[in-house]
Amino acid sequence: MTSVIFTWPTVHIYQIPPPTGKGMRTAQLIQPSIFQGSLRLIRQLDPLHLDVRIEVPVAQGESPTADRELFASCPYINPNAIERAGDSGRYFQLRVVHEKRVAYLAMGFDEREPAFDFQVALADFDKLKRAEVARVEDVQPVQCEQAPLQSFAETGEIPLLAPPPARPASAFEDDFGDFQ
After folding, report:
1. The domain that contains 130 carries what CATH number?
2. Do the domain assignments include residue 119?
3. Can you say whether residue 105 is alpha, beta or left, with left for phi > 0 and alpha for psi between -120 and 50 degrees?
4. What is the tens place of the pLDDT at every residue in 114-157?
5. Cα(73)–Cα(111) distance, rounded to whole angstroms?
6. Domain that holds residue 80
7. Cα–Cα distance between 62 and 37 in angstroms, integer?
8. Cross-referenced SUPFAM superfamilies, in alphabetical order (predicted)?
C-alpha cells in the first residue's frame, strides 16, 4: 500500500558540488536554480520505504491535477539521504539515485513553513521505521543454551540453593559508627 504523506507545488533545485562531510551551506548553491518543480513524499508500507520525488508537470500550466513526470528520485534509506543546510532551514541536500548512479542536488523552499512540514514528515517516517525495526526484533525468537535436564533418578542428587556466605562483621558497620 502506498500513500502520499507530503506534497508541495513549488521547490527549487540547485546544482551543488559533491559533499565534503562538513554539511551543506547555502553559499555552495550554484545560482540560478536549474529546475523548479513539485515535491511529493510517497510512503510504501510493505516493505516500509519512503521515496522523495521531484516532478515536473507534463502539460503546460500548474494545475494541481496535471500529470507529472519524474525529474529526480531520492530514496530515503536513512537520515543521511537528506540533510538540512547548516545555515538555513529552507534548503536541503538530496542524495539522488538513478540506476546505481548517485548525484547530489540542493532543494529549496520559498518559505520556512513548508520546509518545516517537510522535516516533520521525514521525522515521522523515521519514527515509524524505528518502531517497525523494534517490532521485527521483538518477533525474532531468542536462542538460548539450556543445560540438559537431569532427573533425580539419573543423578541421585537433589540440587539445593545454598545460602550466601556470611559476611564479616565489618561489612555491617556504617560510616556513622555504632548506634545502640
Report:
1. 2.30.29.30
2. yes
3. beta
4. 999 999 999 999 898 888 888 877 765 556 565 555 666 677 67
5. 22
6. 2-137
7. 10
8. PH domain-like (SSF50729)
